[in-house]
Write a structure and sequence with these properties.
This protein is of the alpha+beta class and 452 residues long. The chain has 15 helices and eight strands. A hairpin with a 6-residue loop joins strand 7 (211-214) and strand 8 (221-222).
Length: 452
């Protein structure tokens, strides 16, 4: 899941770029990239573009933030998604710098763009539909990369911010949903349900639509805005037993329900709920048995070995993906700087020969800034002065990208399979009354998979 927002930059372009490129936040600058600009001198290059088209006034640029759920994405994938988001949003017409921050509990991208297109001099206008397009594009990229997306088909009253807060357990709307769900289970009638809500310090306003207001909140919330399951009619149906619980059927394995812990505090309809849980567990036990038989995992040893091999496959794929990502970043920087160096070398030579050097520099300021940045990079990267052919670098880049795509397929396949195996393992232990305490497994589970 990624939450996005955008705002304009009116006076502080240098400050914005300095902030997003902070080495302490970007793995010593490793997670910083620029499009049609060199990040270290991007502010100057942005200004040159605006001057070229006589549009130095007004908004200087835009700042986009794309935040991912904690533990859901690794650094390199987040950075790549951020670059792709900027490419799609700006259509290759605006310069931008993308920096991925990893110093917080959640990975997030900062994208700072120019306000004027280097292609045609037209300005980027931030309109109401821009945020919608930003979110839509971000969601599409999340789907393509196996990340969760904020989706509520048929569910009312859930904004993107509200959903993000729900994921963090901070949503007051979600607390209301959970309170209603809890009291639906306990209540034997509509009147008893309302009484339980009042005892929980919710003020109730009845009328055409029933509304609730929690203690300390300023306004009432109509229950129907919480979603289709929270209209008055549906709440009444759920209390009467027409629909005890709404659990979607899942194709993958589900963990067994701990009946005692799940319902030891429930009163009223406890017997019916326990009967539902027993039936549900029988289904899950059958699914687990079928899964183990189909995959030939007829012993604990076979299951342990399969888990070990699948985890190794996932880890090996991830290790190689990170190696490729690192190499691709270097290749990209090499190509960009070598190309800039060769493209602006004549201007640098002209500077040496010019009679009026100040005038020459003013007239060729953009090219000279790019040249100086390229020379600085090349001297550090190739101290012997021998530059690789761009053609060779592009060929290597193409091969590595193809390999990386195949590795991602292997990674996600192994990741999904490992999840199924872990569920089967836990269900099997529950069925046999075992409590396994494998230190390696315990430690492994504590670590969030780097691409999850």
């Amino acid at each position: 899941m990624a939450v996005t927002k955008i705002h304009s930059i009116n006076e502080t372009m240098n400050a914005a770029l300095d902030y997003i490129m902070n080495p302490m936040k970007t793995d010593d600058g490793f997670l910083v990239d620029g499009f049609h600009c060199t990040p270290e001198v991007a502010a100057e290059q942005y200004e040159l573009t605006r001057r070229k088209y006589h549009k130095s006034g007004g908004k200087l640029g835009f700042h986009i933030i794309q935040s991912f759920a904690p533990g859901e994405v690794d650094y390199d994938t987040a950075h790549r998604v951020g670059m792709e988001l900027a490419d799609k949003l700006f259509g290759g017409r605006f310069q931008y710098v993308c920096a991925t921050h990893i110093d917080k509990g959640h990975v997030h991208n900062h994208i700072v763009s120019n306000s004027v297109s280097f292609v045609d001099g037209k300005k980027f206008y931030d309109q109401k539909k821009t945020l919608w397009q930003l979110r839509k594009t971000s969601d599409e990229l999340c789907r393509e990369n196996g990340l969760s997306v904020i989706e509520h088909p048929g569910e009312l009253g859930v904004s993107q911010y509200e959903y993000a807060m729900r994921r963090q357990g901070q949503s007051w709307k979600q607390l209301l949903r959970e309170t209603i769900d809890r009291f639906i289970i306990q209540a034997r009638s509509w009147e008893e349900f309302l009484d339980l809500m009042r005892k929980a310090k919710y003020e109730i306003k009845e009328g055409k639509y029933i509304s609730f207001r929690a203690e300390g909140e300023e306004r009432f919330i109509r229950s129907k805005t919480l979603g289709a399951d929270y209209t008055e009619g549906q709440i009444r149906n759920r209390i009467s037993g027409a629909r005890r619980l709404d659990l979607s059927e899942k194709k993958n394995l589900s963990l067994l329900i701990d009946i005692e812990n799940a319902f030891n505090d429930v009163q009223g309809n406890k017997r019916g709920l326990e009967q539902w849980a027993v039936t549900e567990n029988l289904k899950r036990m059958a699914n687990t048995y079928n899964y183990l038989m189909v995959h030939g995992l007829t012993s604990q040893e076979a299951l342990d070995e399969k888990i070990m091999l699948t985890k190794k496959s996932k880890d090996d794929s991830l290790t190689r993906i990170k190696e490729i990502e690192a190499r691709l970043k270097v290749i990209k920087e090499d190509i960009e700087n070598i190309d800039n160096y060769r493209r602006t070398k004549d201007d640098a030579d002209g500077r040496k020969k010019a009679v009026d050097k100040d005038k020459f520099r003013r007239e060729h300021e953009s090219e000279l800034i790019i040249y100086d940045a390229a020379v600085k990079y090349i001297r550090k990267r190739f101290p012997d002065g021998k530059l690789p052919l761009i053609k060779s670098l592009r060929a290597e880049e193409k091969e590595l990208k193809a390999e990386k795509n195949k590795l991602y397929e292997c990674y996600y396949k192994a990741k999904d399979e490992l999840s199924e195996l872990r569920t089967a393992e836990k269900n099997l232990a529950e069925l046999l009354g075992q409590t396994r305490n494998d230190p390696d497994r315990t430690e492994d589970r504590k670590k969030n998979d780097e691409l999850e």
